[in-house]
Amino acid sequence: MRWKTGRRSRNIEDQRGRRRSKLSLGGKRGGISTIIILLAAAYFGIDPAILSTLLQSGSGQVSSSSQHQNQNQAEPQSAESNELADFVSVVLADTEDTWNNIFNQHGAQYREPRLVLFTDVVKSACGMAQSAMGPFYCPTDQRVFIDLGFYNELKNRHNAPGDFAQAYVIAHEVGHHVQALQGTSQKVHAAKAKLSKEEANALSVRLELQADCYAGIWAHHADRTRNLLETGDVEEALQAASAIGDDTLQRQAQGYITPESFTHGSAAQRIKWFKTGLNNGDVASCDTFQANAL
Questions:
Q1: Which of 23, 33, 118, 167 has the most neighbouring CB atoms within 10 Å?
Q2: For residue 276, how many C-alpha atoms fall within 13 Å in the half-sphere facing its CB?
Q3: Measured between alpha carbons, how far is 237 from 174 in angstroms, rounded to an integer?
């Protein structure tokens, strides 16, 4: 990506290095915290089975006094981490430019989200969250949250390296913000409460695929109006979409797939809808809820 000359966003909250205690699966405090995370994950469309596996990969428990002390301490960041934070700021700013223009064209005003950079654990209006959850959007406070360490996971564990793969992740979460502004997220969450688990999962898939399509819309405009993309960038995004498809993650976590438990969509579906937004650049093309075939 040609990002270094891009505008930086003013909507970044840098909480990196403020180490809070990691949430533990053991003990009363940790157990309750984990249950809250799993419930939140189910609410926001994250497969609890996959999340549980990730949480078990190593979480320790720290006393409340140590937690309070750590909250007030910010560790110095490496040059690599600071450059990545700068990159995130540019990508967020570019999504702001894209969605401000699109909303203006439709006679509406775009409310820009804030993006919080954190380390290990963060407190949001949706509750405490651990970096193992990956990047997420909280509609209650209209913030995107990301631990930059996730990008190492994306590169090393999921084999999806590259700056545009990283940008796709941000654009997807911003897509959830757009859905919140449209009222789509609220309608989906209300509808899910009246459905069976399988039906609710299917609705979550449509919500997530629309966010993928919205990420594609950002890529469309970033390429055509600001010339940000370089050769190979789109392929990086497609690899990232494939790597975090439900079928891919389930095979890694349990060795087989259960389509009825999908909450984000298969690799092929995520690629399809990202490309739909990329090729059309039109919000109307991203209506996954009316699509007969995903």
A1: 167
A2: 20
A3: 15
